[in-house]
Amino acid sequence: MNCPGCEHEMDVQRFPANYGGEVEIDVCSHCNGIWFDGKESLQLSPGATLNLFKVLYSHNDAAKAQLQPNKACPRCAGPLKETNDMQRGTRFSYFRCEQHGRFITFFQFLREKNLVRQPTPKELQQLRAQVQTVKCSNCGAPIELSTHTACTHCSAPVSILSEENIKQTLADLQKREEKRTTVAPDAAARIVQAQLQAQSAYRTFDSGSLPNRFTSGISSNGADLIAAGAEVLVNVLFALW
Predict the structure, then answer these.
(1) Which has the closest alpha carbon to 160: 125, 200, 120, 189?
(2) Distance set, CA 130 to CA 133, 134, 165 (Å)
(3) Is residue 88 left, alpha or beta, with left meaning phi > 0 and alpha meaning psi from -120 to 50?
(4) Contact predicate 156/92, CB 8 Å
(5) pLDDT digit string (tens) for 22-33?
(6) pLDDT tens readout for residues 149-160
(7) Which tops the pLDDT comparison, 1 or 59?
(8) 3-state secondary structure of 47
(9) Are strands 116-117 and 101-105 parallel, antiparallel or unpaired?
(10) d(Cα 132, Cα 150) in Å, to the nearest integer?
(11) Is the model's pLDDT at 62 over the cut of 60?
(12) Residue 95: which of 18, 49, 33 has the closest Cα?
């Protein structure tokens, strides 16, 4: 599949999915663009997100191609619509096809994951004192810091890597991955089974045909039965953790 950003061929990378199995992500080593089919970005496990960072960072020294101004969906060839969003107070953008997925650059992916932020006025002043021109991490175009605070080509704002944000985000991902891998593989099935058992007990109560183990000492409003059904769920959850 060709990259919607630079039209070079993309590589298929496989990563662990949240609920078992794998998810295939299309990555461009030429412009560091990422194509997510459907809801693939939501299927990535925390550990997979870390691995994707590593893959993209390994391409950091690759030549940054000038992105195509008009991007087409690699699945249906229809136009991709630029979309703005916000995550934890940081704005980011991507290009989406209503039917098939979305394309996002590595820079915008970093913004989405809260790894880069816009500089404060003081930081921007210090940067201008040291550097006159910087290269846009989103499209590769030059940005004259003396007159601009955003790329004149793609409108991406000047951003800086936040060491504090990087440490916090990576720590959170690592913690979530460790927590995810400690949950029993049949956790989801056991929770569903417990819910069905509780629902069955509620239906029995509503029908007026309670089994003997629920009739002893039950109040008129069914509070004991509801507590018994809830206890089933609580016991399963405690067993999982």
Answers:
(1) 120
(2) 10, 11, 24
(3) left
(4) no
(5) 899 999 988 889
(6) 888 887 878 877
(7) 1
(8) helix
(9) unpaired
(10) 13
(11) no
(12) 33
